[in-house]
Amino acid sequence: MSAKEKLPEILKRLKKEYPEPMTTLYFRNPFELLVATVLSAQTTDVHVNRVTGALFKKYGSVEDYADTPIETLRKDISSINFYNNKAKNIQASAKMIIGKFDSKVPKTMEELITLPGVARKTANIILSNAYGINAGIAVDTHVRRLSNRLRLTKNDDPVKIERDLMEITPKEEWGNISHLLIFHGRKICQAKKPIHKECVLYDICPSRNI
Ligand code: SF4
Fold first, then answer.
1. Total of domains in the chain
2. pLDDT for 55-112, tens place per residue?
3. Would you call 58 a catalytic residue per the annotation?
4. Is 207 near ligand 1, meaning CB less than 6 Å away?
5. Which residue, 110, 131, 152, sits at the end of a domain?
6. Ligand 1 center to residue 185 CA distance, Å?
7. Distance between alpha carbon 188 and the CA centroid of its chain, in Å?
8. Helices in 68-169 by DSSP H: which ranges?
9. Burial annotation 102-111 (CB, 10 A radius, 16+ → b, else e)
10. What is the pTM of this model?
11. pLDDT tens figures, 17-49
12. Rounded Cα–Cα distance for residues 102 and 105 (Å)
């Protein structure tokens, strides 16, 4: 069976398993989702939510992130990996959004990827989860691993994987497929010890013996 033929069955089974595919990052507006997504690189969503719980109470607007001394922002996110760089990118993005985009997070891929620290993955997450726009498919480490194990792609590069997934996935499912693969990757198809025997995709997965 080709990847395109297999995909509807994969989606059907995963949707049954995970009926509410959506980001597990907490946010109240598009800029907070940008902040949470930037913070989530190399960090769990649970840890990010713990930090943003306090952060979002202290910083109510894009201007707050732009105007605060960078040392303060650094300190407020210091329990997160790579907090120096992340603080720098968040503040630079806030300034650019104020200066170039009228204080609103832009709604296009082309504009979003001009923001510091925002590449296609983050842009896709913002577009899909904050605006309901399916411009592409967010490829994180789980999506990458599962796409390979399920042979939905032969590529290893996230941009190429995204392109392959977009070719075989109906556009209205672009947001969903990313969340479904992430949920399944976290719970069952883990990197080191995939739990094949509990997997709903077992009989159609070419990697069930790895
Ligand atoms: S059968 Fe195993 S390798 Fe295939 S998707 Fe399930 S857990 Fe992952």
1. 2
2. 999 999 999 999 999 999 999 999 999 999 999 999 999 999 999 999 999 999 999 9
3. no
4. yes
5. 131
6. 9
7. 19
8. 70-76, 83-100, 109-112, 120-131, 141-149, 158-168
9. eeebbeebeb
10. 0.93
11. 999 999 999 999 999 999 999 999 999 999 999
12. 9
